[in-house]
Amino acid sequence: MRRILWFRRDLRVDDAPLLSGQGDVLPIFIFDPNILNNLDSDDRRVRFIYEALIRLKTALRHRGLDLALFWGKPTEVFDWLLSRDTYDDVCASGDYDVYARERDRNVSHRLPFTYLRDTYIFRPDEVLKNDGTPYLVFTPFYNRAKALFEPKHLSESLPADQTLIPFDYDGIHRIDGTTLTRLPLCLASIGFSPRPLAPHQSLSPEAKLASFASRIERYSAERDFMALDATSHLSADLRFGTISIRAVLRWLAAQKKQGIDTEPFFRQLIFREFYAMLLYHFPHLSARNFRYPFAGFQDDERFNAFCTSRTGVPIVDAGIRQLLESGEMHNRVRMICASFLTKNLLLPWQWGERFFAAHLMDYDAASNILSWQWSAGTGVDPQPYFRIFNPYTQTAKFDPEGIYIKQYLPELADVPAKILGDEAMLKRSVLGIYPPPLVSHKESADQALEYFKNSLAR
Fold this sequence. Notes:
- By secondary structure, the protein is an alpha/beta fold.
- The chain has three domains: 1-118, 3-Layer(aba) Sandwich (Rossmann fold); 120-155 and 205-280, Alpha Horseshoe (Serine Threonine Protein Phosphatase 5, Tetratricopeptide repeat); 300-452, DNA Cyclobutane Dipyrimidine Photolyase, subunit A, domain 3.
- Helices cover 45% and strands 9% of the residues.
- It has 20 helices and eight strands.
- Strands 1, 2, 3, 4, 5, 6, 7 and 8 form an eight-stranded mixed sheet that branches.
- Helix 5 packs across helix 10 (263-281) and helix 14 (349-359) packs antiparallel against helix 15 (365-376).
């Protein structure tokens, strides 16, 4: 058996299903220009991926294997490989967004394709209603997932005997049609430049778990407070597979044995499953509403103010600054920003989704798309369209000392915290040092409700 092992969202050797098979193998990774050509040249995710690939390549060599790196459209890479050698199949972990499924379908027309369970806990067809249809409400999905959860979902994939197929494993192989060019092994070869990562972003996932162990007991109580370090910081690792979801589940099981309530964090992992399942079954959600004819209004000036942290609403602007500076945004702030864009500014949720997609380190199509539709009130099991977050009361509740806001908006360092959570006081207190609010919360919320009612009436 001669196999191509296609690494994608599983950039590791530990608990790697790709390495648990038998036979002669050619491990590969493809830098896909269909994706990368849309990114800025200093996109920090490309650095994250590149550094993970170098670690993966080194770890594979310790096992007598290696990793061939390619730059090119996947179909052209496989056409080039098949024109020079014979292979029985290609193995890869499941990837279920719209582009990934079309990409894999095209490759499967050239070579038998074997999907392996890895990216998620469950297959997208595993947690379904008794009649075989997908759940449209999270809580029943969550209860069903817990009922179906078995030891197999924790089992570790152990390495097996595999023999490396001879190949030129040095450099990066650029495939353009039928032409091969070998490039030096560096980011510059594929048109990207290194961008600094935050210290915690460079930590190994194992180090992040070890750190999270001291906080998981407080996770449920503290996760919504922006100034507290209450989360696991594992979202990018799960996105790119530098740690397996099963390793995280085994770690949670060990914490549970020590009497720690791990269900709040486990619930967030199942949300990830829910959104992946929904996008798999309803691929049109990547661009269209699931329910309600709310399209919003196209206003470039308002959108530009949102994207450049000039809305005059401190918690929103602080969130955008965090995103632009680090590629991260606190989850509570993501919801506040999304509600503000879709309801206070009445902009299309698709605009916000694309903006987040361009900057989030942990960008995952299913989670991002479905989260934006949740905030807009148009998705599957969404926040009710008539529920509109008040960014000022959210500030007073979840950043009461203004620590988060002042970290990213230093121009407000001398403004008393209580003013940051009071729209009327804020307008009077920051003249000359901070832009006035783009919209009044109450007036814009009332206008949004009127727009939603009229849309439904039509």
